[in-house]
Amino acid sequence: MTSVLERLLNDLPHVYFYSASIFAYGQTSSGKTYTMLGITQYTVADIYDYIRRHEERAFDLKFSAMEIYNEVVRDLLSSNSTPLRLLDDPERGTVVEKLTEEILRDQKHLKKLLSVCEETSARDFPE
Ligand SMILES: Nc1ncnc2c1ncn2[C@@H]1O[C@H](COP(=O)(O)OP(=O)(O)OP(=O)(O)O)[C@@H](O)[C@H]1O
After folding, report:
1. How is 18-52 classified by DSSP, letter by letter?
2. Best mutation site among 34, 35, 39, 74 for ligand 1, i.e. most ligand atoms within 8 A of its Cβ?
3. Which of 6, 10, 43, 109 stands the most exposed, by the fewest C-beta atoms within 10 Å?
4. pTM
């Protein structure tokens, strides 16, 4: 069966930039973090599988992660828990200022970044 990702990339062979966002919403301890970590790993495994089968195309994968709690945005890839500002950019739309963006080297690198997210999402939230 063809995956959604495969159909998207096959239908849009000239797309040079594609950004996907996934949001999880739910009460405390309902499984948001658990679910997001699983979805991210399966999605990226699919992406790397596609890349391996399409050597004629060049790909750059970038990864960011943030948490929104009580209307405060925090960077899950940063040890600094200072709230981040949302800006309205006329061309890019809503932008999270100074959000860390890591260029993914491989799936092992992603696994390491996800474990950083697990640690930082467990931080106490500043009052
Ligand atoms: N589908 C699942 N199967 C097994 N364990 C799960 C599942 N979903 C969540 N858990 C476990 O339940 C606990 C709470 O889950 P998790 O931390 O993902 O919740 P959360 O919604 O992110 O919580 P918070 O809002 O406090 O950040 C964790 O110990 C997690 O491992």
Report:
1. ---------STTSSHHHHHHHHHHHHHHHHHHHHH
2. 34
3. 10
4. 0.71
